[in-house]
Each structure stands twice: as structure tokens, then as C-alpha cells.
Design goal:
Keywords: Aspartyl protease, Disulfide bond, Hydrolase, Protease. One of its GO terms (molecular function) is aspartic-type endopeptidase activity. One of its GO terms (biological process) is protein processing. It holds the Pfam family Asp. By secondary structure, the protein is mainly beta. It folds into two domains: 192 residues, Acid Proteases (Cathepsin D, subunit A, domain 1, Beta Barrel); 123 residues, Cathepsin D, subunit A, domain 1. The chain is 12% helix and 38% strand. The protein has six helices and 18 strands. Strand 2 and strand 3 form a beta hairpin. Helix 4 runs antiparallel to helix 6. It starts with a strand and ends with a strand.
Length: 331
Amino acid sequence: VAIELKKRRGGLKRRFGSTVLTQTDMAYTGKVTVGNPPQEFEVIFDTGSGNLIVPGVNCTVSACTQHRRFDDAQSKTSHAHHCDGGEVGSNEVPNDLVVTFGTGEVRGHCFRDRVCLGEKMCAPAKFISSFEESNDPFEWVSFDGILGLGLDSLAQSHDFSIMQRLERGDSIKSPLFAFFFARAKEEKSQITFGDIQKDKLGSKMYWFKVSGKAGYWQVEIQDIFLDDKAQNICKGCHVAIDTGSSEIAGPQHVIDHLADKLSIKNCKERAKLPKLGFAIKEHGSGGKTKLLSLSPEHYTHDQLLFCQIDKLKEFWRASDIRPPGFAGRSQ
């Protein structure tokens, strides 16, 4: 199943243990449906989180009313569940769950209902339907909710993991997903579930071992390179590949070093900058290292004045986190 992704404002900006959404960021979003009959939502497919979160009909703040909201009363298959347990009994009060997003938070009840990615890939799954959302930052974002695609340990439980539910229900050919981010305007970005569209590949595929148990799609890097020169600043660092973020963030000393090395007066001079590379051991290659590099146009941004050294440091320091680092993909 392939779902078209659209480039929109309002990505997810991470810190270790929390998330910040920033208005200047960009994100890729697509459509999913919840319930029977289906209720459609525009969501970020986010590898940096683990739950499906959508606004609920009982959320009346502007952060919710400006977006599509889930109405459990309109779904024949919806069941209220305790967020840490089973179905809510007739005389029980459901507990709620608070999810913190750095500058704001979401408070919601949990439901179990039919979740569909496309028309045919469906499974019953638990999710969070908010009844409170802070206006900062959710009021201005262009998407309705977030569909977490992190590993199971990032989800509230296995029943909240959409990939786990699809796999258990035999709704998916293989337990995998793949992102394609289009460069040309005539192409469409997309996420595919259950298969890889090899005609979209720009090179051969490389496989890397997931490191750690935090639930992120995290890999260990050998070092950071500028062109072909190792910087000796991040040996053995662990980096999370985060599709919900449009930034590259890292520990203070790493960001300061890169900011000093990548200083230019004007973004028109970005061609003078080196490639920014990450060396990662290939899985099953006997220790062979693959260098994945970004061209200057992929790690600089005219609108945010990244090319000015003071703005570059100020912005990246605002993203300061403890290991693991986060490597964003949205542009």
C-alpha cells in the first residue's frame, strides 16, 4: 500500500525525552482513517514516536476545532479503553493519558477502533483521542494528528503500535515501511507499507543494525565527516532517524564544532561548503563502513538564515539534546 505524502508546515522538533513543534519546520503528511464508517485524518508518519494521536470531538479549544476531530459516537466499531488496560465498563470512568510535546501537551482518552492505511490495509488498534490540547503549538499546525512508527517500546503498549497490529492481523505483506521523498516537482512523495518500491531507489540499498532499546530507529555512527575528513567528534554516537523532524540536532559540543566549520557569510556561498557525512557500519558486511553524505543545500536553509554563524549556533543550540542524537529527514 502506498500513501501520498504532502509537504506542509509544522514539523516535530525533538529534545531527548520530549518534542517541540516549530512553525518554521516542514513535515510530510498523509491520510489515514479511523472508525466505521471511516473518519479521515491528515497525520505525520513519525518514526520518532509510537502512538496514533488524533483530536477528539470533546476537545473544544481552537487547537482542536481547527482540525478534524474523531467522534466515537459516529463509529459502529469504537470502544473506550483504559489507557493502561482493558475496555471501560458501563459504570467505570476511563482514565486518561498526557503526552508532553516540549512547548505544549495533549491530554486524551484511549479508544480501540478500526484504523486503515489506504482502503485495504486495516486493523483494530488502540489510539489516543484528545480532549485537551495546548494552543501552542497545535493551533497553527497544518496536520490533524501524529501516527507513530517507532519501535514497540515507544508505544503505550503493543496494542497501540499500528505496525504491530497490522502484522498480527495479517493485513501487511511484510512488517516494513519505506519513505520516498521526491526531489522533482512532478514526482509525488509517498510512504509504502509492506513492500519497497524498488523503482524509487536512487542507489543500491544499505542495511544498518538498530542500536539500543529506547524504541527509536537508532544506529551507531563511527564519526561525522566533512567531505572525506573525519572530525573525531562523535565516535560511537547513536543517532535516531526521525521522519517527524526537519532538523539535524545533536550534543552541544558536536553542534558547536560543526557550526564553526560550516560558517559562511551568505547562503549564496553555500557551494563552498563541504559535504556533511555520517559513517555507519553496514549490517552483514564484516565491519565495512558506509559514508552517507548531505550536500550543502540539504543542511542549509535560506529562510532560517542558517548560513549566518550566529543564527546557526543559536538555532542548533536550541535543539541541544543528550545522546542519542536525532537526524531529521523532512526538508
